[in-house]
Amino acid sequence: MLFREQVEDVIPLQSNLAEPFHHRPPPIPRPRPLESPEDECQIALSESEVKTYDYLFFARPGLQRRVLAELQRGAFAIELEVDLHGLKVEHARQVLAEFLADCRRRRVRCALIIHGKGQRSEGAVPVLKAKINYWLRLSNQVLAFCSATQRDGGTGAVYVLLRNPAQANRRRAARR
Questions:
Q1: In this structure, what DSSP letter does residue 163 have?
Q2: Mean pLDDT for all residues in the chain
Q3: Of 3.30.300.20, 3.40.50.300, 3.30.1370.110, 3.90.740.10, which CATH number belongs to 52-175?
Q4: Cβ neighbours of 125 (radius 10 Å)
């Protein structure tokens, strides 16, 4: 009743036309940053937080135990390997970055990195082993790594399980 009293002097608009159809412009895509090895290291981790023991082991959360056990047994076929022992730290870092980029291009699933045991370095401290332990944890491409079996270099080398680039592309396409 109150409403009718308030709107009794309103004159209705006379129009039989529907609102015209408007084409919506397509959405403007956001530019994606180009992926480069430097951009890949987005994990905040201090080198002092990483402890290096004789046997190296690292796995990202969610990786199946069976896959990790196979990696530790050396059951994965080594598709590519690099020998870093004897190199200076900066040169080794550069070679490792190039190696990981090459692994991505070639769609390598498992690689072997030989870092040495550090027996010839000052104080017999394995410098490259500690650096490899740290650098591999920073790379989003690396799912897991562990010290190799005796036949592939023992604690002087690591097996590296890399992200499957085909699956990563599928996931990226599904998000779009």
A1: P
A2: 81
A3: 3.30.1370.110
A4: 11
Q: pLDDT at position 31, please?
A: 63
In sign, the C-alpha dihedral spanning 123, 126, 130, 132 is positive
pLDDT in tens, 139-161: 899 999 999 999 998 888 999 99
* Domain range annotation of the chain: 52-175
Q: Is the pLDDT of residue 117 over 60?
A: yes
Q: What is the average pLDDT across 56-72?
A: 92
Distance CA 84, CA 93 (A): 9
Q: From start to end of the chain, where are the E strands?
A: 57-59, 80-83, 110-114, 142-147, 157-162
Residue 118 near residue 128, CB atoms below 8 Å = yes
C-alpha 132, offset from chain centre: 16
Given CA atoms 95, 100, 106, 112 in this order, what sign does their dihedral have?
positive
CA angle 32/171/133 to nearest 5° reads 85
Q: Among the listed ranges 45-49, 61-65, 78-82, which one has the minimum average pLDDT value?
A: 45-49
Residue 39 φ then ψ, to 5°: -70, -20
Find how far residue 173's CA is from the centre of its chain: 17
